[in-house]
Amino acid sequence: MGQRYTTEQVARIFRIPLDRLRRLQREGVLPATIADGRRRYYSFQDLVAVRTYAGLIRSGVEARRVHAAVSQLRALLPEVTHPLSDLRVCSDGDRIVVTRAGEGPFDGESGQRLLDFEVQDLSREVVARLEPAREVPRRADDWFERACALEDAGDLDAAEDALRRVLELEPQHIAAVVNLGNLRYRRGDVDGARRQYEQALAIAPDRAEGYYNVGFLLLDGGDPRGAVPLLHAALDRDPEFPDAYYNLALAYERLGQLERARDLWRRCLELDPAGAYAEDAREGLRRIEGL
Protein backbone atom coordinates (compact mmCIF):
# COMPACT_ATOMS: atom_id res chain seq x y z
CA MET A 1 0.00 0.00 0.00
CA GLY A 2 1.30 3.47 -0.85
CA GLN A 3 1.81 6.20 1.70
CA ARG A 4 -1.35 7.79 3.03
CA TYR A 5 -1.89 11.02 4.92
CA THR A 6 -4.56 12.13 7.38
CA THR A 7 -6.58 15.29 6.85
CA GLU A 8 -4.83 16.81 9.87
CA GLN A 9 -1.38 16.12 8.40
CA VAL A 10 -2.33 17.60 5.02
CA ALA A 11 -3.72 20.72 6.69
CA ARG A 12 -0.40 21.19 8.53
CA ILE A 13 1.79 20.53 5.48
CA PHE A 14 0.04 23.12 3.33
CA ARG A 15 -1.06 25.47 6.12
CA ILE A 16 -4.74 25.21 5.20
CA PRO A 17 -7.20 25.64 8.10
CA LEU A 18 -8.52 22.22 9.06
CA ASP A 19 -12.20 23.20 8.82
CA ARG A 20 -11.62 24.63 5.33
CA LEU A 21 -9.82 21.49 4.14
CA ARG A 22 -12.65 19.30 5.40
CA ARG A 23 -15.11 21.49 3.53
CA LEU A 24 -13.05 21.26 0.33
CA GLN A 25 -12.95 17.50 0.80
CA ARG A 26 -16.74 17.30 1.18
CA GLU A 27 -17.28 19.55 -1.84
CA GLY A 28 -15.09 17.30 -3.99
CA VAL A 29 -12.55 20.04 -4.74
CA LEU A 30 -9.79 18.23 -2.80
CA PRO A 31 -11.05 14.68 -2.27
CA ALA A 32 -9.24 12.16 -0.08
CA THR A 33 -9.39 9.04 -2.22
CA ILE A 34 -8.22 6.30 0.17
CA ALA A 35 -10.99 4.76 2.28
CA ASP A 36 -10.21 2.67 5.36
CA GLY A 37 -13.31 1.82 7.32
CA ARG A 38 -14.98 5.07 8.32
CA ARG A 39 -11.88 7.21 7.75
CA ARG A 40 -10.54 8.69 4.55
CA TYR A 41 -6.90 9.45 3.77
CA TYR A 42 -5.06 11.43 1.14
CA SER A 43 -2.82 9.60 -1.32
CA PHE A 44 0.38 11.17 -2.62
CA GLN A 45 -1.46 11.97 -5.85
CA ASP A 46 -4.12 13.73 -3.81
CA LEU A 47 -1.38 15.85 -2.25
CA VAL A 48 -0.40 17.06 -5.72
CA ALA A 49 -3.91 18.50 -6.03
CA VAL A 50 -3.75 20.09 -2.56
CA ARG A 51 -0.42 21.70 -3.34
CA THR A 52 -1.80 23.06 -6.61
CA TYR A 53 -4.81 24.51 -4.79
CA ALA A 54 -2.64 26.07 -2.07
CA GLY A 55 -0.30 27.54 -4.69
CA LEU A 56 -3.15 29.12 -6.60
CA ILE A 57 -4.53 30.70 -3.43
CA ARG A 58 -1.07 32.02 -2.47
CA SER A 59 -0.67 33.50 -5.94
CA GLY A 60 -3.81 35.60 -5.36
CA VAL A 61 -6.51 33.56 -7.10
CA GLU A 62 -9.80 33.70 -5.18
CA ALA A 63 -11.05 30.38 -3.83
CA ARG A 64 -14.38 30.69 -5.66
CA ARG A 65 -12.50 30.96 -8.98
CA VAL A 66 -10.53 27.80 -8.25
CA HIS A 67 -13.75 25.95 -7.39
CA ALA A 68 -15.39 27.18 -10.59
CA ALA A 69 -12.35 26.14 -12.64
CA VAL A 70 -12.44 22.61 -11.18
CA SER A 71 -16.13 22.30 -12.07
CA GLN A 72 -15.52 23.62 -15.58
CA LEU A 73 -12.59 21.27 -16.19
CA ARG A 74 -14.66 18.28 -15.10
CA ALA A 75 -17.37 19.30 -17.54
CA LEU A 76 -14.93 19.90 -20.40
CA LEU A 77 -12.78 16.83 -19.72
CA PRO A 78 -14.97 14.14 -18.15
CA GLU A 79 -12.16 11.61 -18.55
CA VAL A 80 -10.01 13.65 -16.13
CA THR A 81 -10.96 12.46 -12.64
CA HIS A 82 -8.85 14.87 -10.58
CA PRO A 83 -8.18 18.09 -12.51
CA LEU A 84 -5.85 19.68 -9.95
CA SER A 85 -3.46 16.71 -10.00
CA ASP A 86 -4.00 15.23 -13.48
CA LEU A 87 -3.49 18.57 -15.27
CA ARG A 88 -0.99 21.39 -14.87
CA VAL A 89 -2.98 24.21 -13.29
CA CYS A 90 -1.16 27.47 -12.67
CA SER A 91 -1.63 31.20 -12.35
CA ASP A 92 0.11 33.97 -14.25
CA GLY A 93 -0.98 36.44 -11.58
CA ASP A 94 -4.30 37.13 -13.28
CA ARG A 95 -5.68 34.03 -14.98
CA ILE A 96 -5.89 30.36 -14.14
CA VAL A 97 -3.89 28.67 -16.88
CA VAL A 98 -4.41 24.97 -17.63
CA THR A 99 -2.01 22.81 -19.63
CA ARG A 100 -2.53 19.22 -20.70
CA ALA A 101 0.35 16.92 -21.63
CA GLY A 102 1.28 17.53 -25.24
CA GLU A 103 -1.04 20.50 -25.58
CA GLY A 104 -0.77 24.24 -25.12
CA PRO A 105 -2.49 26.34 -22.44
CA PHE A 106 -6.25 26.22 -22.49
CA ASP A 107 -6.35 30.03 -22.73
CA GLY A 108 -4.27 29.90 -25.87
CA GLU A 109 -1.81 32.42 -24.45
CA SER A 110 1.97 32.12 -24.52
CA GLY A 111 4.94 33.53 -22.67
CA GLN A 112 3.25 33.48 -19.30
CA ARG A 113 5.08 32.88 -16.05
CA LEU A 114 3.90 29.56 -14.62
CA LEU A 115 4.19 28.51 -11.02
CA ASP A 116 6.19 25.32 -10.46
CA PHE A 117 4.29 22.44 -8.91
CA GLU A 118 6.75 19.65 -9.81
CA VAL A 119 6.06 16.33 -8.12
CA GLN A 120 9.68 15.70 -7.11
CA ASP A 121 9.72 18.94 -5.14
CA LEU A 122 6.50 17.93 -3.45
CA SER A 123 7.88 14.52 -2.57
CA ARG A 124 10.88 16.08 -0.83
CA GLU A 125 8.62 18.54 1.00
CA VAL A 126 6.30 15.82 2.30
CA VAL A 127 9.14 13.56 3.41
CA ALA A 128 10.88 16.43 5.16
CA ARG A 129 7.74 17.33 7.09
CA LEU A 130 6.34 13.91 7.95
CA GLU A 131 9.17 11.40 8.30
CA PRO A 132 10.53 11.00 11.83
CA ALA A 133 13.54 13.26 12.13
CA ARG A 134 16.91 11.70 12.83
CA GLU A 135 17.77 14.39 15.34
CA VAL A 136 15.91 14.79 18.62
CA PRO A 137 13.11 17.34 18.17
CA ARG A 138 13.29 20.48 20.25
CA ARG A 139 9.97 22.20 19.58
CA ALA A 140 6.47 20.98 20.42
CA ASP A 141 5.43 21.03 16.76
CA ASP A 142 8.46 18.92 15.82
CA TRP A 143 7.52 16.32 18.42
CA PHE A 144 3.97 16.40 17.13
CA GLU A 145 5.13 15.74 13.55
CA ARG A 146 7.17 12.81 14.84
CA ALA A 147 4.16 11.45 16.75
CA CYS A 148 2.02 11.53 13.58
CA ALA A 149 4.68 9.74 11.56
CA LEU A 150 5.11 7.09 14.26
CA GLU A 151 1.36 6.53 14.44
CA ASP A 152 1.22 6.16 10.66
CA ALA A 153 4.01 3.57 10.93
CA GLY A 154 1.98 1.64 13.52
CA ASP A 155 4.29 2.31 16.49
CA LEU A 156 1.58 3.43 18.92
CA ASP A 157 3.78 3.25 22.03
CA ALA A 158 6.38 5.58 20.54
CA ALA A 159 3.65 7.84 19.14
CA GLU A 160 2.10 8.18 22.59
CA ASP A 161 5.49 8.96 24.12
CA ALA A 162 6.05 11.67 21.49
CA LEU A 163 2.64 13.20 22.21
CA ARG A 164 3.51 13.34 25.90
CA ARG A 165 6.67 15.24 25.00
CA VAL A 166 4.54 17.71 23.02
CA LEU A 167 2.37 18.33 26.06
CA GLU A 168 5.34 18.72 28.36
CA LEU A 169 6.53 21.56 26.14
CA GLU A 170 3.10 23.00 25.32
CA PRO A 171 0.31 21.76 27.63
CA GLN A 172 -2.44 23.37 25.54
CA HIS A 173 -1.36 21.97 22.17
CA ILE A 174 -4.90 21.12 21.08
CA ALA A 175 -4.00 18.71 18.27
CA ALA A 176 -1.76 16.70 20.58
CA VAL A 177 -4.45 16.53 23.25
CA VAL A 178 -6.98 15.21 20.72
CA ASN A 179 -4.54 12.78 19.08
CA LEU A 180 -3.63 11.35 22.46
CA GLY A 181 -7.34 10.79 23.05
CA ASN A 182 -7.62 9.07 19.65
CA LEU A 183 -4.72 6.78 20.50
CA ARG A 184 -6.24 5.83 23.82
CA TYR A 185 -9.58 5.12 22.19
CA ARG A 186 -7.88 2.87 19.62
CA ARG A 187 -6.33 0.94 22.48
CA GLY A 188 -9.63 0.46 24.28
CA ASP A 189 -8.98 3.04 27.02
CA VAL A 190 -12.33 4.84 26.73
CA ASP A 191 -11.97 6.67 30.06
CA GLY A 192 -8.53 7.92 29.08
CA ALA A 193 -9.84 9.04 25.70
CA ARG A 194 -12.70 10.91 27.33
CA ARG A 195 -10.33 12.75 29.69
CA GLN A 196 -8.32 13.93 26.70
CA TYR A 197 -11.39 15.00 24.72
CA GLU A 198 -12.79 16.89 27.70
CA GLN A 199 -9.44 18.61 28.12
CA ALA A 200 -9.53 19.61 24.44
CA LEU A 201 -13.03 20.96 24.98
CA ALA A 202 -11.82 23.08 27.90
CA ILE A 203 -8.88 24.42 25.87
CA ALA A 204 -10.87 25.26 22.72
CA PRO A 205 -14.60 25.57 23.49
CA ASP A 206 -15.16 27.33 20.16
CA ARG A 207 -14.16 24.27 18.12
CA ALA A 208 -16.59 21.54 17.09
CA GLU A 209 -14.25 18.57 17.50
CA GLY A 210 -14.22 18.51 21.30
CA TYR A 211 -18.01 18.39 21.57
CA TYR A 212 -18.20 15.82 18.81
CA ASN A 213 -15.60 13.49 20.34
CA VAL A 214 -17.18 13.49 23.80
CA GLY A 215 -20.64 13.07 22.26
CA PHE A 216 -19.40 10.17 20.16
CA LEU A 217 -17.98 8.43 23.24
CA LEU A 218 -21.26 8.83 25.12
CA LEU A 219 -23.21 7.42 22.19
CA ASP A 220 -20.73 4.59 21.74
CA GLY A 221 -21.05 3.84 25.45
CA GLY A 222 -24.84 3.53 25.31
CA ASP A 223 -25.88 7.02 26.42
CA PRO A 224 -27.66 8.60 23.42
CA ARG A 225 -29.50 11.10 25.63
CA GLY A 226 -26.23 12.45 26.98
CA ALA A 227 -24.72 12.54 23.49
CA VAL A 228 -27.48 14.67 21.93
CA PRO A 229 -26.63 18.11 23.43
CA LEU A 230 -22.91 17.64 22.73
CA LEU A 231 -23.50 16.71 19.10
CA HIS A 232 -25.85 19.68 18.73
CA ALA A 233 -23.10 21.88 20.19
CA ALA A 234 -20.66 20.51 17.60
CA LEU A 235 -23.07 21.41 14.80
CA ASP A 236 -23.64 24.88 16.26
CA ARG A 237 -19.91 25.46 15.74
CA ASP A 238 -19.60 23.65 12.40
CA PRO A 239 -22.95 23.37 10.58
CA GLU A 240 -21.30 21.36 7.77
CA PHE A 241 -19.91 18.49 9.88
CA PRO A 242 -21.39 15.30 8.32
CA ASP A 243 -20.03 12.94 10.98
CA ALA A 244 -21.88 14.90 13.66
CA TYR A 245 -25.13 14.78 11.65
CA TYR A 246 -24.77 11.01 11.28
CA ASN A 247 -24.15 10.33 14.95
CA LEU A 248 -26.84 12.75 16.10
CA ALA A 249 -29.29 10.92 13.83
CA LEU A 250 -28.20 7.62 15.36
CA ALA A 251 -28.73 9.02 18.86
CA TYR A 252 -32.25 10.18 17.97
CA GLU A 253 -33.05 6.81 16.41
CA ARG A 254 -32.05 5.08 19.63
CA LEU A 255 -34.27 7.52 21.54
CA GLY A 256 -37.21 6.68 19.27
CA GLN A 257 -37.32 10.12 17.59
CA LEU A 258 -37.35 8.75 14.06
CA GLU A 259 -38.41 11.89 12.16
CA ARG A 260 -35.48 13.81 13.58
CA ALA A 261 -33.16 10.93 12.75
CA ARG A 262 -34.44 10.81 9.17
CA ASP A 263 -33.90 14.54 8.60
CA LEU A 264 -30.38 14.41 10.03
CA TRP A 265 -29.36 11.42 7.92
CA ARG A 266 -30.64 13.20 4.84
CA ARG A 267 -28.56 16.26 5.76
CA CYS A 268 -25.50 14.05 6.28
CA LEU A 269 -25.92 12.66 2.75
CA GLU A 270 -26.49 16.12 1.26
CA LEU A 271 -23.15 17.24 2.70
CA ASP A 272 -21.12 14.12 1.96
CA PRO A 273 -22.87 11.57 -0.30
CA ALA A 274 -19.71 9.46 -0.67
CA GLY A 275 -18.17 9.92 2.76
CA ALA A 276 -17.26 7.50 5.51
CA TYR A 277 -20.76 7.51 7.00
CA ALA A 278 -22.73 7.74 3.74
CA GLU A 279 -23.68 4.07 3.40
CA ASP A 280 -24.55 3.82 7.09
CA ALA A 281 -26.76 6.90 6.72
CA ARG A 282 -28.54 5.30 3.76
CA GLU A 283 -29.02 2.14 5.80
CA GLY A 284 -30.49 4.23 8.63
CA LEU A 285 -32.96 5.80 6.21
CA ARG A 286 -33.92 2.38 4.92
CA ARG A 287 -34.58 1.19 8.47
CA ILE A 288 -36.88 4.12 9.20
CA GLU A 289 -38.67 4.15 5.86
CA GLY A 290 -39.21 0.40 6.06
CA LEU A 291 -41.20 0.69 9.30
Structure notes:
The chain is mainly alpha-helical. The protein has three domains: 4-125, Multidrug-efflux Transporter Regulator, Chain: A, Domain 2, CATH 1.10.1660; 131-199, Tetratricopeptide repeat domain (Serine Threonine Protein Phosphatase 5, Tetratricopeptide repeat), CATH 1.25.40; 205-291, Serine Threonine Protein Phosphatase 5, Tetratricopeptide repeat (Alpha Horseshoe). The protein is 63% helix and 6% strand. The chain is built from 15 helices and five strands. The longest helix has 15 residues, at 44-58. It is globular and about 55 Å long. It starts with a strand and ends with a helix. The model is unreliable at 102-123 (pLDDT under 50).
Give the topology, please.
Elements lengths: L3 E2 L1 H8 L3 H10 L6 E3 L2 E5 H15 L4 H14 L6 H4 L1 E4 L4 E4 L19 H12 L9 H13 L3 H14 L4 H13 L3 H14 L4 H13 L3 H14 L4 H13 L3 H14 L6 H12 L2
Antiparallel strand pairs: 1-3, 2-3, 4-5
Helix pairs in contact: 7-8, 8-9, 9-10, 10-11, 11-12, 12-13, 13-14, 14-15
Observed structural traits:
single chain; 3-stranded antiparallel β-sheet; 291 residues; Multidrug-efflux Transporter Regulator, Chain: A, Domain 2; mainly alpha; two-stranded antiparallel ribbon; Serine Threonine Protein Phosphatase 5, Tetratricopeptide repeat; 3 domains; 5 strands
Radius of gyration from CA coordinates? 21 Å
Which fold does the CATH topology of the largest domain refer to? Multidrug-efflux Transporter Regulator, Chain: A, Domain 2
H/E element string? Answer: EHHEEHHHEEHHHHHHHHHH
What is the makeup of the main sheet?
Answer: 3 strands, antiparallel
Our count of domains comes out at 3
User: What's the pLDDT, averaged over the residues?
Assistant: 75
